[in-house]
Amino acid sequence: MWIDSHCHLDFPQLKKNLGQVLERAREAKVERILTVGCVAHGPGVCESVTRMAGERSDMVCASLGVHPHDASNWEESVGREILGYMDHPQVLAWGEIGLDYYYDNAPRQKQQEAFRAQIRLARSVSKPIIIHSRDAEEDTCRILREEYAHGDGPRGVLHCFSSSWDLAECGLELGFYLGFGGMLTFNKAQNVRDVAVKAPLDRLLVETDAPFLAPVPHRGKTNEPAFVSLAGEKLAEIRGLSAEETAQATSDNFRRLFQSGEQHPRRQRP
User: Fold this and answer.
1) 195 three-state secondary structure
2) Strand 177-180 vs strand 30-38: parallel, antiparallel, or unpaired?
3) Within 10 Å of residue 144's Cβ, how many Cβ atoms?
């Protein structure tokens, strides 16, 4: 059974037919779906995402955070709003948060401010974080090293990983996981596959990032959690494993990170 560790069920493309989306996921042997609420993306996100997770608790869990695209809307009151939902039993993480220098939808200084503030809030309530990083490797690594320089506590995942081994190594050393999705199937994404092969299996998650980044052969169409198996099967293929072994390993990793509270030790450089 697969776990989709990152998608956006509250986006209109999926929400309007949620029952059918979840049924197709079940048929594709998806047992769990983490839906990510981008809180500053629109009004009422905290309430709608936690309500969805509560009503579909047999299959859906959630996270909440301010995406770097929306970092201009970050302020302490938004952090307090998110904090108010962190004791919900289906809210497992804080995110997605991070840096996006590709689109630069918010000033970089504001992105960094929102990133740091949310890391600290997440640590204050012992929640793992879900990190978005695009064209911002150096600053992502620097901030993570500074914010996690002292003390233990939950780490998180570098989701939709598309960066270099340098950022992967930085995250792994600090105790983070790496999330891989449909890009594993893209012809021009050999760099992503190289990282997915090199990283330790016990630090890998699979995801869809639905409704975005549908894997081959659905590329260009609306992505959905049922397609997580295609990313997982590609991961199995490039690592020389069976789909069953890969599903078991990545699902165990998800539970270790988001549900059990067990933390991986930092990895030392050789």
Assistant:
1) helix
2) unpaired
3) 26
